[in-house]
Amino acid sequence: MALMDFLKRQFIDIIEWTDDSRDTLSFRFPDDDKEIKNGAQLIVRESQVVQFVYMGEFGDTFGPGKHTLTTDNIPILTNLKSWKYAFESPFKADVYYVTTRLFTGNKWGTSNPIMMRDADFGIVRVRAFGTFDFRISDPRLFLKEVAGSDQHFRLDEFSDTMRSRLVSIFSDALATSKIPVLDLATRYQEIGEALLPLINPVVSAKYGLQFESFILENASVPPEVEAAIDKRSSMSAIGNLNDYVKFQMADGMAKGGSSGGAATELAVGMAIAQQMMKDQGGFVLGASGGAGAPAAPGAAAPPPVPPGIPELLTPADAAKTLGVTEADVMASIESGDLKAKKIGSAFRITRAALDQFLAH
After folding, report:
1. Pair 219, 185: CB distance under 8 Å
2. Residue 195 phi, psi (nearest 5)
3. pLDDT tier at 282, thresholds 50, 70, 90
4. Helix axis angle, 351-359 relative to 261-280, nearest 10°?
5. How many CB atoms lie within 10 A of CB 187?
6. How far apart are alpha carbons 8 and 280 in whole angstroms?
7. What are residue 108's DSSP bridge partners?
8. Sign of the alpha-carbon dihedral angle for 184, 188, 190, 195
9. Would residue 56 be called left, alpha or beta, if left means φ above 0 and alpha means ψ between -120 and 50 degrees?
């Protein structure tokens, strides 16, 4: 009787494992150096797969259900062990339970910026983070490439192992998709769905995983790129720079302020009066500010010449006169709205050109 109890303690009759941790990816059944006897019961629950490993080689794989272990249903293990006759003796093998349910809300992120080539900004550095949902699709490949022989492989270990690999895959997928940086900031969900078909073939072939969702929650660029994007948005909102400059000066005059000094206000006032007289076929203000001859219908009025403005102005002088930034003046020169002469590497603006610009 004592011998029977001893032998019973040396053999495994039932193999089962209940996961109550919710963060276990794979678990090696503790055999305590016992052997599995012929006819032992293997219980595999839903969302579980059991993988036998014999002397470092993969044996049979069992899905959900109750299985009786005999030579009839473990042919791979029987072949590895080279049993020539009926399965009579106990055997030792590692039994791995692999969880196949969906693991949701896993975080990913770039610890260092990703270098990518952009059509609008050239080469830029991008940081990104988000979440993903995944499941194990190939238990053998997962055990071989990710979990290894770990007795209890959990999500936190998986995150540490896969973070750098996932970021590398994301970087390659992002480069392949050629999505502009401006679109990254406005189409997170669409981009995540677009990247999923690019990421899945890689993680499936390399690690035995299947991503059910890949969500990009945020993508950021360096401050200088953000400033360039803001400037581009501002210019788009402004529209015609010439009209914007005149609106700023007129608004400043209406509020009783000085947007560019007395000379600028006088120039604007003369330009507005001249345009009104031209539209009504009346008199045109001359260079001295007095009344001149009636303007011929359709004839171009001479430009106003406000006092106190030199014949040649630098862009900085013109900006001060107009009450705008020097960058706005240079933008008007480059667009052709404001005529300027290039003397060496510097621009000079004539008084007539400035008056003509104000009269438009």
Report:
1. yes
2. -80, -25
3. very low
4. 60
5. 16
6. 115
7. 130
8. positive
9. left
Angstrom distance (rounded) from CA 71 to CA 28:
22
Reported as a single tens digit per residue, the pLDDT across 75-122 is 888 888 776 655 566 788 899 999 999 999 888 888 888 888 877 777
Query: E-assigned strands of 137-187?
Result: 152-154
**E-strand stretches of the chain:** 11-15, 24-28, 35-44, 48-54, 57-62, 65-68, 94-99, 103-109, 114-118, 122-136, 152-154, 209-220, 283-285, 291-294, 312-313, 341-343, 346-350
Q: What is the pLDDT of residues 27-49, one digit of tens each?
A: 999 988 788 888 899 999 999 99
> Against a cut of 0.70, is the pTM above it?
no
Query: 183 with 116: CB under 8 angstroms?
Result: no
The strands making up 94-99's β-sheet, listed across from edge to edge, are: 57-62, 48-54, 94-99, 24-28, 152-154
- Burial of 299-312, coded b for 16+ CB within 10 Å and e otherwise, reads eebbbbbbeebeee
Supply the DSSP string of 2-47, one letter for each residue.
HHHHHHHHHEEEEE-----SS-EEEEE---TT-EEEEEEEEEE-TT
pLDDT digits (tens, 9 = 90+) for 112-154: 888 888 777 778 888 888 999 999 999 999 999 999 889 999 9
Nearest to 60 by CA among 49, 76, 82, 37: 76
Pairing of strands 122-136, 114-118: antiparallel
